[in-house]
Amino acid sequence: MGIAVNGIDIDDRVIDAEIGHHQQADNPLMQAVHEVVLRQVLLDEARRLGITEGSDDDRIEALFAREVTVPEADEESCLRYYLAHAERFRSGDLVEARHILFQVTPSAPLELLRQTADAILAALQAQPERFAELAAQYSNCPSGAIGGSLGQLARGQCVPEFDELLFRLQPGELAGRLLETRFGLHIVQAQRRVDGEVIPFATVRTQIADQLRRQAWQRALHQYLHLLVGRADIAGVALEGTSSPLVQ
């Protein structure tokens, strides 16, 4: 492919061997190229700094440990995060919910489905008491047979986008928009809500500190990789340093 890093040609066979690890990517070949090139950039930097012991992965880890360091999150930062994300630090929240699912199928493409779902949502906004009737008529979920009822749901039981919408709704509130998930389009209504307990800051302080440190480390790592990529002589491909699974 004519790719070189700091004057060293990248063997096509190395890229071919890497492709198998990226079959879920939008462009497996390009992802494999980026991975191989970035790894070579990192190994070159490790060698320049005298890090030569162990396997390739060992040398890259040693390079990160030496060059990418972040301070521990202090008490003030942790408390600020806790207060800003109070909804995440509750246990036992439950919402009784119901929905109408419009499932995308080859015979019911998304736009046609959206038109139907929008019409049903408008009908429910005008006559909310028809929810069970319309769920039985239109929902592609087995819950349609019982008025669309999903029972009581705890946080994390549903896909994230459903969770996020549901736990923002007030008891009895019908979502004012359609929700799109991998299952299709949903009309969602919250019914009875049971609030859980607030988890004390002291209980989650260590968890928050770990999360803030991971976030800070990832930002620092991305900056470091951009620096190395910008400094390297890379021929044959334009490389974005943060596109690699190495930095996820």
Automatic annotation (TrEMBL):
<dbReference type="InterPro" id="IPR000297">
    <property type="entry name" value="PPIase_PpiC"/>
</dbReference>
<dbReference type="GO" id="GO:0003755">
    <property type="term" value="F:peptidyl-prolyl cis-trans isomerase activity"/>
</dbReference>
<dbReference type="InterPro" id="IPR050245">
    <property type="entry name" value="PrsA_foldase"/>
</dbReference>
<protein>
    <recommendedName>
        <fullName>peptidylprolyl isomerase</fullName>
        <ecNumber>5.2.1.8</ecNumber>
    </recommendedName>
</protein>
<feature type="domain" description="PpiC">
    <location>
        <begin position="92"/>
        <end position="192"/>
    </location>
</feature>
<keyword id="KW-0697">Rotamase</keyword>
<keyword id="KW-0413">Isomerase</keyword>
<dbReference type="InterPro" id="IPR023058">
    <property type="entry name" value="PPIase_PpiC_CS"/>
</dbReference>
<comment type="similarity">
    <text>Belongs to the PpiC/parvulin rotamase family.</text>
</comment>
<dbReference type="InterPro" id="IPR046357">
    <property type="entry name" value="PPIase_dom_sf"/>
</dbReference>
<dbReference type="Pfam" id="PF00639">
    <property type="entry name" value="Rotamase"/>
</dbReference>
